[in-house]
Design brief:
The complex is a heterodimer. Chain A is mainly alpha-helical. Chain A has three helices and two strands, in the order αααββ. Chain B is built from 16 helices and eleven strands. In chain B, helix 5 packs parallel to helix 6. The chains are: A mainly alpha, B alpha/beta.
């Protein structure tokens, strides 16, 4: 039995990630993720209370471009790469089902 | 073709381009030489997911016609290049070595592809990688591993293993890779070539398929420091299509390497994590000696948070990856597993399309970002990232560049890391902290270690300090060739 992460949590995370997993995969992932989280405990002793999180190497500013019509991707070329398309739209199976 | 990048007999890319521009050789001849090398050894090495022989021949003919007509085809005229297969090429399959993108043809070019073509470079193929650039050995490719040209029982490193092997085997003069935690520098070290991860934002990433967006950066593999400088001079610069690209011009690195290292302060990190093999450590010491002999001063510095790089990285990179890879859902591109409703289709498609390592990182990242765990993992990792960045900044007040091993070991055998993911992650101990800080770093071949295999020395520098980093690299290369 894992100490840091349970099979139930792994199964829930797989649902959040939209990733079908088999019972064998859940067992293996539970053990591997638990091992990794164990390695990550090396930072537990650090006092990080006054440290500002760093999300990017450089401060980013929002960028606006001029509102001018320019060439863009060709619609037919984009749709041709999709698994299914119809009437200039991506075609998907029915939505609304719970899985 | 030589597998020794330090062989002074190998013509540089700039020499090839000069000869093509002057009409003393032809791009067609250059392309045929490289296609012949590919024909001779590619079945053994598997550097490429796709070789673009006819496209390369057509492009070479255009370049030769331009020269004949008195036009200049550009600074990389006739230089052959291999592209990591995570950079978009319009109408040409781009797979990320993943089943989920198998057969996908992008509707646009990455900016680097257009820039290289405009400079006269000839793309000879798309190279193999660990799936979605997640790995350090190229063993995670859905299309089979790449083999190290120096010893085919060993890995070329990763994730850009195909690009490193292509340059080492003489399949292409230069190559491009991407580096999120060491994916250019580590394979460069294991294959005995030069590999550079520039400052975050130095090169446009438009059309680079995203892995971890706050860490990814494109850079070159070359046989010489001079060629790496030339490549970055061509591909570096602002791109309006990439809002993270730095909006200022970069100084010429080709010019920078004309200067020596007299007076340069080279830092030795006294609290560097242990773990490098003795043969690698011996080459690092020799590199310090070489730079000292060339006129540099060696100084001791400390980077206490360096040791926490792996932890911060393996929470931040998977977190970003879990978000970036959400787009592979069977709707707009790539494969789809049909199912009764969309949710079932998403889950089945992603389960069938992604390999084990990619699934593991998506799971780890989703977990680290999920409610109840965010503060304990992802939030904490972002704070550790700040510590690493600030420690480096303090070190760079005392040293112009830092020297470390690139990889703790020489190229290892296939399967050596078993199925313990963390053992593989340790390959990137020395490369990862740079990506977290956003700084530049490069690996330069510096002799050989166990079994006569190449060893790379890593040179690190502060933000946009590429010129000084390249001066140190050129000095090391001169010493290695003595």
């Amino acid at each position: 039995m894992s100490e840091r992460i349970s099979a139930a949590v792994v199964a829930k995370v797989a649902r959040l990630a939209r990733l079908d997993v088999t019972p064998d995969e859940i067992d293996r992932m539970t053990s591997q993720l638990d091992g990794m989280l164990g390695h990550f405990a090396d930072v537990d002793a650090l006092d990080l209370s006054d440290v500002i999180p760093m999300t990017q190497p450089f401060p980013l500013v929002n960028v606006f471009r001029a509102d001018i019509v320019r060439p863009c991707l060709d619609r037919d070329e984009v749709l041709a790469a999709a698994p299914a398309a119809e009437a200039a739209c991506f075609r998907v199976p029915p939505t609304g089902g719970e899985s | 073709m030589s597998a020794d990048s330090n062989d002074p007999g190998t013509p540089t890319a700039s020499a090839v381009a000069a000869a093509v521009r002057a009409g003393t050789t032809t791009a067609a001849l250059v392309v045929e030489q490289h296609l012949a090398a590919i024909a001779a050894r590619e079945s053994e090495i598997h550097a490429f997911n796709l070789v673009l022989a006819e496209q390369a021949r057509d492009h070479a003919a255009q370049i030769d016609a331009a020269v004949a007509a008195g036009n200049d085809p550009g600074p990389l005229a006739g230089v052959t290049i291999a592209l990591k297969d995570n950079m978009c090429t319009r109408g040409v399959p781009t797979t990320c070595s993943s089943k989920i993108l198998d057969g996908w043809k992008p509707p646009y070019n990455a900016t680097v592809v257009d820039v290289l073509r405009d400079a006269g470079a000839i793309i000879v193929g798309k190279t193999n990688l660990d799936e979605f650039a997640m790995g350090s050995s190229t063993e995670n490719s859905a299309f089979g591993p790449t083999r190290n040209p120096h010893d085919t029982s060993r890995v070329p490193g990763g994730s850009s293993g195909g690009s490193a092997a292509a340059v080492a085997a003489g399949f292409a003069q230069v190559a491009l890779g991407s580096d999120t935690g060491g994916s250019i520098r580590q394979p460069a070290a294991l294959c005995g070539v030069v590999g550079v991860k520039p400052t975050y934002g130095y090169v446009s990433r438009y059309g680079l398929i995203a892995f971890a967006s706050s860490l990814d950066q494109i850079g070159p593999f070359t046989s010489s420091v001079e060629d790496a400088a030339l490549m970055l001079d061509v591909i570096g610069g602002h791109d309006p299509m990439d809002s993270t690209s730095i909006p200022q011009p970069h100084p010429s690195l080709t010019e920078a390497i004309q200067h020596g290292v007299e007076g340069l302060r080279v830092g030795r990190i006294t609290d560097l994590p242990e773990g490098a093999d003795p043969d690698v450590q011996e080459r690092l010491e020799a590199a310090f000696d070489a730079l000292r002999a060339a006129g540099a001063t060696i100084v001791d510095v400390q980077v206490p948070a360096f040791t926490f790089g792996l932890t911060a990285y393996y929470l931040i990179a998977p977190a970003e990856a879990s978000s970036n890879l959400a787009r592979y859902d069977g709707v707009r591109y790539g494969m789809r597993v049909e199912a009764a409703d969309t949710n079932a289709m998403y889950g089945a498609t992603r389960a069938a399309g992604f390999g084990d390592e990619v699934k593991r990182r998506i799971m780890l990242g989703t977990y680290a970002l999920s409610a109840g765990y965010y503060d304990a993992y992802y939030g904490k990792a972002l704070k550790v990232r700040r510590l690493i960045h600030d420690d480096f900044e303090r070190a760079y007040q005392h040293a112009d560049v830092l020297l470390t091993p690139t990889s703790p070991t020489v190229a290892f055998k296939f399967g050596d890391k078993g199925d313990n993911p963390f053992a593989m992650y340790l390959c990137d101990t020395y490369t990862i902290p740079t990506n977290l800080a956003g700084h530049p770093a490069m690996s330069v071949p510096f002799g050989t270690g166990a079994e006569g295999l190449p060893v790379g020395v890593q040179i690190l520098a502060g933000t946009l300090q590429e010129p000084v980093m390249f001066r140190a690299a050129a000095a090391l290369e001169r010493e290695a060739n003595k």
